[in-house]
Amino acid sequence: MATRSRFFRPLLYTAAVAAAGGGVLYISYRPRNIPGSEPALVPPPKYGEEGHLDPPRFPLVKNREEQIADLKRSAGVISALEKAKGVLGSLTGPGVVDQRIPEAEPYDLLVIGGGATGSGIALDAATRGLKVAMVERDDFSSGTSSKSTKLVHGGVRYLEKAVWELDYNQYKLVKEALRERKYFLDTAPHLSSWLPIMIPIQKWWQAPYFWAGTKFYDFLAGSEGIESSYFLTKSRAMDAFPMLRKDNLFGALVYYDGAHNDSRMNVSLAMTAALYGTTVVNHLEITGLEKDAAGKLIGARAKDLVQERDGKSPQEFSIRAKGVINATGPFTDAIRKMDDQSVKEIVAPSSGVHVILPGFYSPSKMGLIDPSTSDGRVIFFLPWQGNTIAGTTDAPTNITQNPIAGEEEINWILSEIRGYLAPDINVRRGDVLAAWSGIRPLVKDPKSKNTESLVRNHLITVSDSGLLTCAGGKWTTYRQMAEETVDEALKLYDIKASSVLEVPHISGTERMDDSAPLDGTCQTHQVRLIGAHGFSKTLFINLIQHFGIESIVAKHLCESYGDRAWTVAALSSPTEQRYPVRGVKISALYPFIDGEVRYAVRHEYAQTAVDVLARRTRLAFLNAQAALEALPTVIDLMADELKWDRKRKDREWKDTVQFLASMGLAKSKLSVTRKDVESGKAGEYDEHERKLYSRHDAPADTMESDSKFSSGEKPVLKTDSSVNK
């Protein structure tokens, strides 16, 4: 018996080790479904007998005036728009702008805030059969939601803290975020993608440490994982990321996370909610909350800020709802104090600065993370929209509408970048194309002394009057936050979810758009966003063949609008050239075209030039100077669409230039006029500004062939220069 035991025990140990190793290998290298690699959910457009393609036709959302009219109807008011259409005409007299109607039609939920959280809540509630309104003081994604690091991630740094500090809350946050990351990439494959991120290793002992960490990250992701992490030797790391500093480089670990276009994602959430029946209005300010005799909330008062921009005096009106949800990010406490002045603040605002550098600073398909900066923070260095994004800082701040990135923060980021890039790469202040500061609405922990240790988790609270507040969180978990908030609202306000019987044909076809059974339960993990249904990796080829647009423009349109790229391309102007046939660029440096401006106004509620330059396109985030130079074109296109007069166009110029100051535009450019831009003077720098803002050295005054001139003489190469005679 003892002999048999000695014989079988090694076999059992060997089998156990082999099974464990096989399990690890399977988890690491099992086949994955890469988001966006599948064919389009709906059939592509068909070609007719003569080879002509019939582009798809998509459902439209209500225009902004109709949406505001719906808001007024909730309080029993008929608007001038409805009167003009003959709605309840017998109840309106001559000269009456707004008038009461017999029956008010209150909403189930009024969501204040049109960022990622608010838009996510609106979509979740609408797909549960609720009557929902969402209003935003500025624009969708105008605040924190457009100023992220552009990652869809679980948070490797949070996982490290969870392990070393035995922090279960951090662990839960990572686990939840990894699950949500998969939903994120599935529901918006055109706006998000997987991205390999490199961790440089400088000491041999760091290799097993980071390997264990990234493999644990893979393990937690489970079936929600994208790709498995892997190790690179020094030579292979340099091949993958040639800009790296070779000194003391031992190798690198590469793990996978998601990347996305944050404000385009936010706008898509809002537009999808609108297609599912949500009343969606931006540039509408909540001026007060309304309560009944018992002190319970019954709605809010609002005014249209677009009318103010047009030089009119907007009248306040009421919006009635059974429940009011506060999802205003950094401005959470302002709405809470509107409800109760004595309430204690729950948000600890933290400033996160990012800078945009030219694309040559990083590979186009590989990011980098520096896990040990000089002060212990983490910096990401990622390719984004053809450029490179670097950040972020993390420091307490005050809440302002458009915070400005300070020179100290910008220089700190550049200094850290110099530490891991090759010494022959001159990291210059002049290479910063844009810089911005975003305010993270972190949930305050009274025991914490600095914001770095705050958990990026969310908090749901309810006031005595019934104001439901959702605060904190991060982009990756917006959907989970929305689900929990709507669950709480159903219980708090005693409203019932129901099946959505009339599912909108978002894809433009008669077939069922999603596999989500909209039966009154949360299905947003399956509800694809606008643009996702007809998207595929080869869609851009159809656009090139049908419209004759540039390849880079076609890819950009598909990755920004999904199947709605058909509509954007159709709205673009002919170039009057042999090629490209369509698509007049608003900036020579980037693939944004005039059709995007028209689409933004007609289909995405863009009301200001900043809406277009910052959130519908991303030009202001990619290059502040290029955005300034594109501003005349954008204003003219929007003026044609929205019938702006001269005063409104002048205001748009002034307000947009001031906004670009918060995106890193040089101070000397804040006083430029439209004439300066159109004449090219806006691109001129003096010697001091050139060192700070110019991407290149001053041009040489002479050529080598000018040696005939005496020493010290520098003829300028102008038309009347003797060099040209």
Automatic annotation (TrEMBL):
Domain FAD dependent oxidoreductase span(s) in chain numbering: 108-479
Localization, UniProt: Mitochondrion
Keywords annotated in UniProt: Calcium, FAD, Flavoprotein, Membrane, Metal-binding, Mitochondrion, Oxidoreductase, Repeat, Transit peptide, Transmembrane, Transmembrane helix
Cellular component GO terms held in the UniProt record: mitochondrion
Primary localization: mitochondrion
Reactions performed catalytically: a quinone + sn-glycerol 3-phosphate = dihydroxyacetone phosphate + a quinol
EC number, as in UniProt: 1.1.5.3
Coiled-coil segments: none
Domain of life: Eukaryota
Domain Alpha-glycerophosphate oxidase C-terminal: start-end pairs: 522-649
Membrane-crossing segments per the record: 12-29
Cofactor: FAD
Gene Ontology process terms (BP): glycerol-3-phosphate metabolic process
Comp. bias intervals (Basic and acidic residues): 675-699
Disordered, as annotated region: 675-725
Enzyme type, top EC level: oxidoreductase
GO MF, any single term: metal ion binding
Gene3D superfamilies: Alpha-glycerophosphate oxidase, cap domain (1.10.8.870), D-Amino Acid Oxidase, subunit A, domain 2 (3.30.9.10), FAD/NAD(P)-binding domain (3.50.50.60)
Family: Belongs to the FAD-dependent glycerol-3-phosphate dehydrogenase family.
Name the record gives this protein: Glycerol-3-phosphate dehydrogenase
Protein's organism: Letharia columbiana
